[in-house]
Structures are given as C-alpha cells and as structure tokens.
C-alpha cells in the first residue's frame, strides 16, 4: 500500500485474471480489515496489477464439483468481502484498468467513485445470466442503487457488459479516461472526497447504505442456503462444467 | 398466435379502440394463462390490430352507473391482468403501434422491452388525473420502477401523455422506430432476450419484480374496496358520465 | 400573498439572508397553515425578497451554545416546516432567485416544480458535510426521491452545491431561466399544475409522498433525540463556533 497523503492503493494480483478464489477473497478481507483499523489511511484505491483485467469475478472452480460445505464457506467469504467494501469507512475509489465482469463489477459497485479506462475491451457489468446463473439480491440491490431500477432490470436479465461509452451513459461508472491516466485521475478524485470532514462523510455514507447492507446481514444464512442449494443442482453443475471446459480449450 | 421460433404474437382486437372491457380483460387473462403453460412459447409480443391505437385503457362504461359488485368484479380482473403480465415468465415485448394512454400504458409498462412507433399522435402515459380519477398504487409502482420517483411524481400528477421523442427521453419506452418497422424491430428485440438461458432470466426477472407484485397481492382485497368506494362517489360518477357523453358527441 | 387566480406568493424576507431562525420557521408554518385552510388558494409560489439568496438554510445560531431543550424545540420546528411543505395539498412551485444551500434547498425540494435563476452564483444543494454535520434521513429521502440514489449518495457525501447548468442536468431543479423571468415562468408553470382537477392531483401527490412523510412521522421523537445528542457534542459545537466566527469576520 502507498501512503501518499493517507491513500492506500490495493493492486489486485492473483494470476492470471484476479479471479476471486477463496484464498484471494480471504486475503482481500484481511487487508481491508487492517486498512480500516490503521488510522494513517483515510482513502483506498482498488485497481489491478494484471494486464487487461480488473477482476474476472467469482471463481467457478470454487462453485463446481465441490462439497456443499465448501460452497457455503465460499459464499460466506463473498458476502464478507461485499459487506466490508460496501460499508467501508474509507473513501473507496475504483481505478478500473481492465475487464470488469460479474464479481469484479460487484467490487467496483461498492466504491464511492468509479473510473474506467477508455479501452473497448474493458466492459463492465453483472453478466451472470449468460452463464445460466443468477446474481443474488444484494448484487441486484447494489446495481439498482447505482443505475436505477429499470436499467438494472434490463442489465441483469440480459447479462449486459457495458463498454466504456455505454457504461458512462448508464451511470455504472462515473468517469471514462484514457488508459494511461486512470491512476492519476483516481488520485485526483480521491483527493476531492478526502477534502470532506471524515466524520460527517462517514455518517452520510452509512446512512445511504444502511438499508441495503442490513438486508443481507439479516438474511445472511438464508442467502448461503439459497446459494448452496442452487449451485448444487445437476443442471447448474453441468452448465458450469461445460463453461469451464470451454475456457480451458480457449487457453489451450 | 404466431410460433416462429417460440414467439407468440398477441394482436389486440376489441373494436373500436381495444378498450379493456370486462370481457376483453377475461379473454386476455385466459390467453396469457394458456401461453404460460404452453412449453412451445418462450416469448410474447403484444401489439394492436386496430389502426392508430394500442389500447384506450380501462373501460369507463364498466366503471359508471353499475353496481358495487360489478365494480369489484371489474377491478379484480384489472388486477389479475396486471399480475399475469408483470410476473410473466415469458419474455414480453410491447410493439406499441398506436395511442397508449392509462390502462394501455399499464400493459406496456409490464413488458421487458417497449418499442413505440414514431408518430406524433401516439403518446403514452398514465393520464388518470385528467379524468379526475387516481391511478392506484400498483400503477404508480410500475411507473416509478420504469422512470424513477421524480419523473413519475410529475407525470402522474399532471397526467402526462408523452409523444415519442419525450417518451424515449423520460425512459417510458426503450426505442422509437418508424411505424412500418415496429413489428420487425420487436422480433429482433425479443430474439436478444430469448438468447439468454430461460431459467436464469426468469429467476432474475422474478427477483426484480417480486416486491412490487407482492405489494398488490398482499393488499388485493383492500385495493378492490378502495376502488369500489372511490368510483361509487357521486362526484366521480358525475364526472365520468360527463366524460362519456362528451366522447359520444365527438363520435356522433 | 397575491391572489391572481388562486395563487399565493410567499416572499421570504428575513434579513439579511432568510436564515431559518426559530422565529422565522414558526412564521412560515403559521402562514402555510392559513393558506392550506383558505379555500381561495389552490397554489403557492415560494420565492425570496432578499437579493441574491433564496434562503441560507438552518440558523447555526439556534444550534450553537444553547440548551438541549432549545435544540429540541428548534428541530421540531424544522420537522414541522418540512412536513407541512412536503405534504401540502396546494400546488407548490419554488421560484429560486438566489443561492439555495442546505435548509433552503430542502424547502425547494418539497415543491412540485423548481425553477432556478440562471446566475452562476446561485447554486443549490445539501452541503451539510462541508460544515462537519450530517443531513438527517428525511433530507436524504427527499433528495433521493428527486435525483435518485446514486446521485444523492455522491451529492450528500461531497456536500455538492450545483450551479444552474449542473442543477438542471442532475434534476435537482426542473427549469433554469434568465433571472428576470423567474417569477413569470413560475406563474406559467403553476398554471399548468392548477389545470389538473384538484382532488385527483392531491390524492396522487399524497400517494407519491406518503411513505417518505410517514417515515419521519413515525420516528419523529427519535429524530429529535438524535439531533440533540449529535449537535450537543463538543466537537460539533466547536466546529460550528469556528464557522460562525469566520462568517462574522467575512462580514466585518
């Protein structure tokens, strides 16, 4: 983490594409907890150290051919990451310097400000339906809060990945800038947010996000059970397996 | 109904202007029920077979000079149509090839995608206040979900009917196309939605719409009672009668 | 109050900058109550008689160096003004002919239609965080209803004051017009709203605003207690005192 003026920078580096494996999720949560407790930091920029991808999202290998207990453990870790990020008392800025689908998009959506590199290959969205799976209600709530009910309904059903110009227009990101300027613009943006008195800003942020976060906190166990029973279905397992095999062939 | 690639087309044909009489509502609900249960259909286009009008909306003759029992029966049928359409597991596309006020607009708002013919005479909106009546809360909820709270507050109070360009801008429709292309664009649009795995799309749609549908389901009887007591008022009956007489004179 | 065609005009005149002192709040509430009960008025334009400022908002002197009982009395009066304005059965139009921060913006947000004079000095927004304080949940709800969740989250955290062009773009006002035309445009706008049958318009307005108003009504005492305990904190009192002293020096 950098420390220029109280700003930490978290550079995702889980080769090849920053997939959110259980191990990587756990690391992220621990790092976030440390930063929250370290009074020398008031802001955090999340970005990628892997070329061309911010994060490929959830790790299908954690959701395929494993035990129900493993699925439950994995899902709790995903919930935990979202709760930490969405309720962070730090100013959170996403410097999105690569493709940003599914779980990658979810992380970006928890930020206070989102900057996307202007590269047609870098699209952003919750594309779960394309894989035959369903974004849970708290992914949905986070998206509705960001782009509104109608745009979210359309984006979630169609599994839309928005390229930069469309992403800006629908409001899923706040700025689109040339790729080489993403980091410097992120620093300027976070400076604007850090100019606000911390206490007032944090209370305001908590007020805005409380209802949405509480909904998951209240239904956490139920949400784990839903995930485990959904992902354990034969039809879902088959379609995930097919998808993983196709991915392997692409690389091979 | 057509069957090209799993798409049914429902062409409203209740002369002269597709008014939602009790009989027509009942027919629509039965047709929808059949389509939902027919596995050969995955998508439905609703459009009009009457020139110049999609649907004139609720039938004032069912709401004027009849018994409370009739008003209750009529209102239950309106509720039933909305619940069927809004919660349909089919992909629903509205090919709006004519004027689309009040109850016509309500049907369009239940769709997954709305295409309006680019004709200045074809406006769309919930214009109930202009007749001295009030859209019920579930009409309001459907509109808020589509265009947001502020735009809905303004549109509902002023009884706004949006001509094509304004309709597109406020987001009450998704596309405005030349009149002769409405049907072909509807087919292209529905193909995009039908490319998504059904099960994931249906669960996502249900998740997006559940809270809104549940609100009516929970308060269904109360909503019928409200309607019956409101519509039975002398002042409302008088103003509906006046309106109906003016309509007759226009035609005569 | 003017009476041309049932329109009252309330011109704020509490020198120098229409600060919402306890006395001024009480006067406003009494005037509103009278207007609501006077059947000769169906619409109300709120505007300023002070040059360059619509209203500077809440009176920090009522919130600084006083007793808890005074803070409670003051806050109840702020709640009362908002409840009266937000639930008014009159058509309410804001002719914003000057700067419109914080509590001034709150009053404007309760209107059915907002017109801002096109002067770069006249910005509008809820800038509480800049003073180290937090807008209460009902200020927040009113803003979210007007500009949506994401824009409100950003505006409230950053304490944004929108100059005219930005105010129009984000939707916090409905029209921006040359300064000399604010009053005449307000009269035209209110005429459009008053053309709608009163009863239907009022029921529709109540339906749109009920949930938001009820939230404060239900938590009114709790909200007073929160305000009193927050504003009584040493750190808040110190920062308000500093701010007031700086204001005095500016003038001196």
Short description:
Chains A, B, C: Its main location: mitochondrion. The structure is a homotrimer of 252-residue chains. The first copy, chain A, has 252 residues and is α/β, with parallel strands linked by helices.
Question: Could you explain the architecture of this structure?
Answer:
The structure is a homotrimer of 252-residue chains. The mean pLDDT of chain A is 96. Helix content of chain A is 54%, strand content 15%. The first copy, chain A, is globular. Chain A has a 5-stranded parallel sheet with strand order 1-3-6-8-10, sandwiched between helices. The termini of chain A are far apart. Chain A is an alpha/beta fold. Chains in contact: A-B, A-C, B-C. Chains A and C meet through helix 4 and helix 8 of A and helix 5 of C.
Quaternary status of these chains? Answer: homotrimer
Q: How many angstroms separate the termini of chain A? A: 35 Å
Measured by DSSP, the beta-strand proportion of chain A falls in 15-25%
Give the overall shape of chain A, derived from the CA principal axes: globular
Report the CATH topology name of chain A.
2-enoyl-CoA Hydratase, Chain A, domain 1
Helix content of chain A: 40-55%
Widest sheet: strand ordering of chain A: 1-3-6-8-10
Number of H- or I-type helical stretches of chain A: 10
How many domain regions of chain A? 1
Which CATH first-tier class of chain A would you pick? Answer: Alpha Beta
């Amino acid at each position: 983490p950098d420390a220029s003026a109280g700003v930490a920078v978290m550079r995702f580096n889980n080769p090849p594409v920053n997939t959110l494996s259980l191990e990587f999720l756990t690391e992220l949560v621990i790092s976030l907890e440390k930063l929250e407790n370290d009074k020398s930091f008031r802001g955090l920029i999340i970005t990628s150290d892997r070329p061309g991808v911010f994060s490929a999202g959830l790790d299908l290998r954690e959701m395929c051919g494993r035990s129900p207990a493993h699925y439950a453990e994995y899902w709790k870790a995903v919930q935990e990451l979202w709760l930490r990020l969405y309720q962070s008392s730090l100013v959170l800025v996403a410097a999105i310097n690569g493709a940003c689908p599914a779980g990658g998009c979810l992380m970006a959506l928890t930020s206070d400000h989102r900057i996307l590199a202007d590269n047609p290959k870098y699209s952003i969205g919750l594309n779960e339906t394309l894989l035959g799976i369903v974004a849970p209600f708290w992914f949905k709530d986070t998206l509705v809060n960001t782009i509104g009910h109608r745009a979210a309904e359309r984006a979630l059903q169609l599994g839309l990945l928005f390229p930069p110009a469309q992403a800006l227009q629908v409001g899923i990101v706040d700025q689109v800038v040339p790729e080489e300027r993403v980091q410097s613009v992120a620093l300027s943006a976070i400076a604007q947010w850090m100019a606000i008195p911390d206490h007032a800003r944090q209370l305001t942020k908590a007020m805005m996000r409380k209802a949405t976060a509480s909904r998951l906190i209240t239904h956490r166990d139920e949400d784990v059970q839903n995930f485990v029973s959904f992902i354990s279905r034969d039809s879902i397992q088959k379609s995930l397996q097919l998808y993983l095999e196709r991915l392997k062939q692409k690389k091979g």
